């Protein structure tokens, strides 16, 4: 099979591992930066997609691909999803389609959909530009977590110890026209969370991520560490259901353990592989490729 991975940084661990797994499985895999793609709607004929390689003076049409894996970051979400939609119009099999990918990248919309399906999430507030920041901070209480809508790897996440600091930051971000949601801080979690790696209808692996001393974020890129985790049946079902509600084939579902039971913090459409593979000792990249193979084969036989 000929596969494509949309990724801006091909040297990242996750991209390297996925390409290795594809090649070891006997497939070809190209890695392209979605921001170097050119989409065209001609006056007559079908939509077209071209690619301009780094330093190239001309752009080239792309070949046929059997399957596509999106691995682009938050700064490439809009263009990346447009490229995914192009492949969807061709009937190409995608591992995490454009609609689900874009939904997962919007923290508020994804939480809103999870809540609509009666899945537990922390109390979360989003206010418009004309809403009093002081009113929001009083509503959520202190301490509070502030999150920009499109951050990743712990970027754009802030812990506000007092209502006054919450109000101050909300006011600043409001004037900068940066939407931000306020979320209750779960003190009993002590900065730890569960990352559940879901492929299809199974939790392949889970780990407990632990924030470094003095850090409330448990993300690997913020210096966090991890140990293997044993999930309860409830936590497993919660992770699987969350991925299904968002519409993802592959997801990193972050769950926090609270006195009220497990709650979903976030559903990640492009979960990193480095920490989960090193913690679990599993070849998760290969399992993703195998799942994509089966999805491609299933789509071909149903035509």
Automatic annotation (TrEMBL):
<dbReference type="GO" id="GO:0005737">
    <property type="term" value="C:cytoplasm"/>
</dbReference>
<dbReference type="Pfam" id="PF08443">
    <property type="entry name" value="RimK"/>
</dbReference>
<keyword id="KW-0547">Nucleotide-binding</keyword>
<dbReference type="GO" id="GO:0046872">
    <property type="term" value="F:metal ion binding"/>
</dbReference>
<dbReference type="GO" id="GO:0018169">
    <property type="term" value="F:ribosomal S6-glutamic acid ligase activity"/>
</dbReference>
<comment type="similarity">
    <text>Belongs to the RimK family.</text>
</comment>
<dbReference type="GO" id="GO:0009432">
    <property type="term" value="P:SOS response"/>
</dbReference>
<keyword id="KW-0460">Magnesium</keyword>
<dbReference type="GO" id="GO:0006412">
    <property type="term" value="P:translation"/>
</dbReference>
<feature type="binding site">
    <location>
        <begin position="217"/>
        <end position="219"/>
    </location>
    <ligand>
        <name>ATP</name>
    </ligand>
</feature>
<dbReference type="InterPro" id="IPR013651">
    <property type="entry name" value="ATP-grasp_RimK-type"/>
</dbReference>
<feature type="binding site">
    <location>
        <position position="266"/>
    </location>
    <ligand>
        <name>Mn(2+) 2</name>
    </ligand>
</feature>
<feature type="binding site">
    <location>
        <position position="268"/>
    </location>
    <ligand>
        <name>Mn(2+) 2</name>
    </ligand>
</feature>
<protein>
    <recommendedName>
        <fullName>Probable alpha-L-glutamate ligase</fullName>
        <ecNumber>6.3.2.-</ecNumber>
    </recommendedName>
</protein>
<keyword id="KW-0464">Manganese</keyword>
<feature type="binding site">
    <location>
        <position position="266"/>
    </location>
    <ligand>
        <name>Mg(2+) 1</name>
    </ligand>
</feature>
<feature type="binding site">
    <location>
        <position position="254"/>
    </location>
    <ligand>
        <name>Mn(2+) 1</name>
    </ligand>
</feature>
<feature type="domain" description="ATP-grasp">
    <location>
        <begin position="111"/>
        <end position="293"/>
    </location>
</feature>
<feature type="binding site">
    <location>
        <position position="193"/>
    </location>
    <ligand>
        <name>ATP</name>
    </ligand>
</feature>
<feature type="binding site">
    <location>
        <begin position="184"/>
        <end position="185"/>
    </location>
    <ligand>
        <name>ATP</name>
    </ligand>
</feature>
<feature type="binding site">
    <location>
        <position position="147"/>
    </location>
    <ligand>
        <name>ATP</name>
    </ligand>
</feature>
<dbReference type="Pfam" id="PF18030">
    <property type="entry name" value="Rimk_N"/>
</dbReference>
<feature type="binding site">
    <location>
        <position position="266"/>
    </location>
    <ligand>
        <name>Mn(2+) 1</name>
    </ligand>
</feature>
<keyword id="KW-0479">Metal-binding</keyword>
<keyword id="KW-0067">ATP-binding</keyword>
<dbReference type="InterPro" id="IPR004666">
    <property type="entry name" value="Rp_bS6_RimK/Lys_biosynth_LsyX"/>
</dbReference>
<dbReference type="InterPro" id="IPR013815">
    <property type="entry name" value="ATP_grasp_subdomain_1"/>
</dbReference>
<keyword id="KW-0648">Protein biosynthesis</keyword>
<dbReference type="InterPro" id="IPR023533">
    <property type="entry name" value="RimK"/>
</dbReference>
<feature type="binding site">
    <location>
        <position position="268"/>
    </location>
    <ligand>
        <name>Mg(2+) 2</name>
    </ligand>
</feature>
<dbReference type="GO" id="GO:0005524">
    <property type="term" value="F:ATP binding"/>
</dbReference>
<feature type="binding site">
    <location>
        <position position="266"/>
    </location>
    <ligand>
        <name>Mg(2+) 2</name>
    </ligand>
</feature>
<feature type="binding site">
    <location>
        <position position="254"/>
    </location>
    <ligand>
        <name>Mg(2+) 1</name>
    </ligand>
</feature>
<keyword id="KW-0436">Ligase</keyword>
<dbReference type="InterPro" id="IPR011761">
    <property type="entry name" value="ATP-grasp"/>
</dbReference>
<dbReference type="InterPro" id="IPR041107">
    <property type="entry name" value="Rimk_N"/>
</dbReference>
């Amino acid at each position: 099979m000929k596969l494509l991975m949309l990724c801006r940084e091909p040297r990242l661990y996750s991209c390297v591992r996925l390409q290795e797994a594809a090649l070891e499985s006997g497939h070809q895999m190209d890695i392209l930066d979605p921001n170097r793609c050119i989409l065209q709607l001609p006056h007559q004929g079908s939509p077209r997609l071209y690619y301009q390689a780094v330093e190239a003076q001309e752009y080239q049409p792309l070949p046929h691909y059997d399957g596509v894996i999106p691995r682009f970051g938050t700064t490439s979400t809009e263009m990346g999803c447009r490229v995914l939609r192009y492949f969807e119009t061709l009937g190409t099999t995608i591992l995490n389609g454009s609609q689900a990918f874009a939904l997962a990248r919007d923290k508020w919309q994804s939480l809103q959909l999870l809540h609509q399906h009666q899945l537990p999430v922390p109390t979360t507030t989003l206010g418009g530009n004309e809403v009093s920041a002081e009113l929001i901070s009083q509503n959520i209480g202190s301490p509070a977590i502030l999150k920009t809508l499109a951050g990743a790897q712990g970027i754009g996440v802030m812990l506000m110890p007092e209502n006054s600091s919450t109000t101050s930051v909300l006011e600043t971000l409001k004037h900068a026209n940066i939407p931000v949601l306020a979320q209750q801080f779960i003190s009993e979690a002590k900065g730890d969370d569960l990352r559940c790696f879901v492929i299809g209808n199974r939790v392949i692996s889970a780990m407990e991520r632990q924030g470094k001393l003095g850090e409330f974020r448990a993300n690997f890129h913020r210096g966090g560490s991890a140990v293997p985790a044993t999930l309860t049946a409830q936590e497993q079902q919660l992770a699987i259901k969350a991925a299904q509600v968002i519409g993802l084939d592959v997801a990193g579902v972050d769950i926090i353990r609270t006195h009220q039971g497990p709650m979903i913090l976030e559903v990640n459409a492009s979960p990193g592989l480095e920490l989960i593979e090193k913690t679990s000792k599993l070849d998760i990249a290969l399992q993703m490729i195998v799942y994509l193979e089966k999805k491609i084969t299933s789509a071909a036989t149903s035509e």
